[in-house]
Specification:
It comes from Bradyrhizobium ontarionense. This protein is an all-alpha fold and about 210 residues long. It folds into two domains: about 1-60, Arc Repressor Mutant, subunit A (Orthogonal Bundle), CATH 1.10.10.60; about 75-210, Tetracycline Repressor, domain 2 (Orthogonal Bundle). The chain contains ten helices and no strands. The chain has helices at about 1-40, 40-50, 50-60, 60-80, 90-105, 110-120, 125-150, 160-175, 175-180, 190-210. The longest helix has about 35 residues, at about 1-40. The protein is elongated, with a radius of gyration of 21 Å.
Length: about 210
Amino acid sequence: MIEADQNTTRTAPDEDSSKRRQILDGARKVFMDLGFDGASMGEIARAAGVSKGTLYVYFTDKFRLFEAIVEEESVHRGASNFSFDPDRDAATVLGEFGKAWIAVVCRPGGGSAIRTVMAIAERMPDVGRRYYECVLNATISRLAAYLQARVNAGELAIDDCHLAASQFQQMCQATLFLPFIFQAEPAPSHDRVHEVIGSAVGMFLAHYGVKN
């Protein structure tokens, strides 16, 4: 009897996690398709394949549900696999980062996630701040730390590495991100990304690179 109770205790969290995952996946699709204001708990329940009663067991309202999705996005994107090896040269690392960053922010669904957070940030400032700090600023800070390492190695001359990291990130997005996020253009092609990132790296190193 004790062993049976232990088995029940072990499996219940797994079942709970699976159901929560099911709800979050359904809710994410509804939010991305309809936006925050257009989404309803009933629509989310249908998309998730659960009853409204089950949905309310996990989340009291769509505000809490949306917060959970942003939190998950923050954790996932904050741990994105950008390679910032301090021993590698700046041209290589910046080029790889730029392409990887555009793949994140211009991926199918990615623009919608950012649009949705932007739309709700005024009403839910904690959500907006969390997304900014955990996804956007966290990435800039990691890039800034890499740039500081290259400054220490004598390859770059930068007074404010956080500013320089922000500048490079924005240069990578030039002509790519805004047309995509406003749905004026589809996700950029591989060739276009290569062209824009190459230009960004060249401009960055022309300004901050140490002349030998």
